[in-house]
Amino acid sequence: MGERLIVIGGVAAGMSAAAKARRVNKDLDIVVYEKSGYVSYGSCGFPYFIKGEIPRIDDLIVRTPEQFAKQGIEAHVHHEVLSIDTVVRSVRVRNVETGEEFTDQWDRLILTTGGVAARPPIPGLDLAGIFTLRTPEDALAVRAWIEERRPKRGVIVGAGYIGLEMAEALAANGIKVTVVEMLPQVMPNMDPDMAQLVQEELLRQGVELYLEHPVQAFEGKERVEQVLAGDAAFPADIVIFSVGVKPNVTLAKEAGIALGPTGAVAVDDHQRTNVPQVWAAGDVAEAHHLVTGKPAYIPLGTTANKQGRVAGTNAAGGDAVFAGIVGTAVAKVFDLQVARTGLSLRQAREEGFDVASVNIKASSRAHYMPGHKPIHVKLIFEKGTHRLLGAQMVGAEGVAKRIDVLAAALHAGWTTYDLAKLDLSYAPPFAPVWDPILIAANVANK
Amino acid sequence: MGERLIVIGGVAAGMSAAAKARRVNKDLDIVVYEKSGYVSYGSCGFPYFIKGEIPRIDDLIVRTPEQFAKQGIEAHVHHEVLSIDTVVRSVRVRNVETGEEFTDQWDRLILTTGGVAARPPIPGLDLAGIFTLRTPEDALAVRAWIEERRPKRGVIVGAGYIGLEMAEALAANGIKVTVVEMLPQVMPNMDPDMAQLVQEELLRQGVELYLEHPVQAFEGKERVEQVLAGDAAFPADIVIFSVGVKPNVTLAKEAGIALGPTGAVAVDDHQRTNVPQVWAAGDVAEAHHLVTGKPAYIPLGTTANKQGRVAGTNAAGGDAVFAGIVGTAVAKVFDLQVARTGLSLRQAREEGFDVASVNIKASSRAHYMPGHKPIHVKLIFEKGTHRLLGAQMVGAEGVAKRIDVLAAALHAGWTTYDLAKLDLSYAPPFAPVWDPILIAANVANK
After folding, report:
1. Which of A54, B33, B147, B316 is spaced 20 to 30 Å from A201 by Cα?
2. Is A396 an 8 Å CB contact of chain B?
3. Distance CA A303, CA A322 (A)
């Protein structure tokens, strides 16, 4: 009989790990416990489901438990792991539908419990009509609330990626949207000058934006009726609460699995935790940041999938390494593409770099082509060496994949001089003859 | 009095060189002689002018001679350089409007005579209604022919980038288009499997395509009436002849400026020719190919601009180096984006590499997003080492700038293993969680 691998959590990292483990090792028993009613779903699609662009929540499911069963992977939904015993190597599991509890033994364990929405102790946060967005059940609840209650006024608390994607989703449902944010800018991992472009787009789209408005309370009788923030009151028939994601480390902490400096589970480049035969991956874990050389907590689906494969390979007896991240991310905010990679100016300063930056405005196509749009490129680099530390880009087209060239540059450890040498593609419908990246590099090199 | 820099040819490389030389050296006399009636134009825009997307040819002009004059650059249009004397350092020039000839002295010379359309000795090639496309005058002539003659049937000879862009331009003018090509595929610098996708698009768009149909003759009385190719006759009211570009090296050869193995002017990494104080740049010159380590002739506007700046800097007494090319190019062919970088499979084999390749079909967006389109990615790499040698991409969206990540990978000298590590951007509207590049790399690494 083969050894038994238990995977706790069946979303991106967990199901990538299980599937990869199966391919690497045919003899392993592989069991996944997932608390929600779904495995293997694309949670980044929730705003588009709520917006109405994606008709059914099932469209976001990559594979069902039945499909995993055919691969020889036992995936149990509605099963919450209550505790981990790393000495006798067992987990205590509850079937949340029946209430039944049982103990299961493992030889190898992969922890992919993901992230949870941050929920600071704000009065009224439990009122009906206030939603966070982590699981398909959350997305279905928002969609049902919209269809049944026809809310007219929506308040988004928190202007990060999810908050702004949800602003678009609610507005598309005819809801008048107000965004309230504690900080003096939207998208805190962008620099203020680039965030300003996003703020202008929100206003153009009719979204009301209140910066430096920390939420004090939610009020209402049976359901939320208004949001108190920054000493103002905002009426609301629906609230999306999206102030951040924290690693879901409760199980890990109780089991003695070590956390790192970010508060997420510490892992090495094989996704090993401090406990033998226990790996971790995805939004519960840290990742090695290639620009700082330190562990970082940047929970994203891309990293979760890659780390999951590495954890699955190693837990199955193979040998794989996760190379690390550079913090690349992109979001659609109404008609803008907003992208970043590496360190922001503020992050670079906090890391102790002697930093310079350039911020240029160029065109997404040749200047004479109809439909060309402005594209803003910011490069953050080290004074003296000109080593690239980060980049940000905002524009209506040509941003999402152009940022990847700068992500590659960070992987390569390039300077802005190296960037200026790149033989990048050109045709009038797709770029100016000097690509915006080359323009920015040339300005940095002056 | 300052020394005198003469630049022969005033398009991309020439005007980049002149402008850069002026910035580097305020004392230099800078004179540009350009045979056509325009300087500093974007010739890649001609198909879009002919298509009707760009209203005026002047929209393609970056700067006029008057604007250059304000920078202290004397740019003479309608001035053809007839010969170069590298001993007494002079050029013989003819004003093609007045017929006047004169001699001008130089201390430093930059040769940017560009490329010329290949014109093999085919009977009837000089008939009215047959056009090549290199200068604004050419583009204006095609546009005038379309407006005055209202051609119904057009034949494109040669299925390279320009030929296929012109197929789209003519079709947009209501012309029934037939493309005849000598080779068994369109776009000879793409591999046949990728070219096949372009061929299918041409057929979908109602373009008739005849491969392996070398042109034998053009026939007609006062103007072209039919094209004989591959023993078939194709009626034509207009013909675009686009079988390739050759370096315009007549002046260089006569002056004893050495050509390289490709037949273009040989230059070092400072754009120096074999003659002291003579530099060359752009479509007349070779470029160092970073994948093969050899000189290559790949005439493109991006390279012309970069080489021009390097030549201008050095001719003005500065010190700049051109890093080389990897052969990146993109074209719009009707609703497809077609891109390539590095070596094709055939080129890689010809260079003696032991080659492998993968060709995957992925999606331009998350699978559940409306509007997602197939995107085909081909990676060409060395067996054993897995060193990336080239890449090709075809799809309706997300191709043009995604190829640049692979261009960057070639600059970095990466393997397909390195590629698989990249932290690329993801959001459902812009990419699947596994970017098509990562999917291709993962398949290559299996």
Report:
1. A54
2. no
3. 9
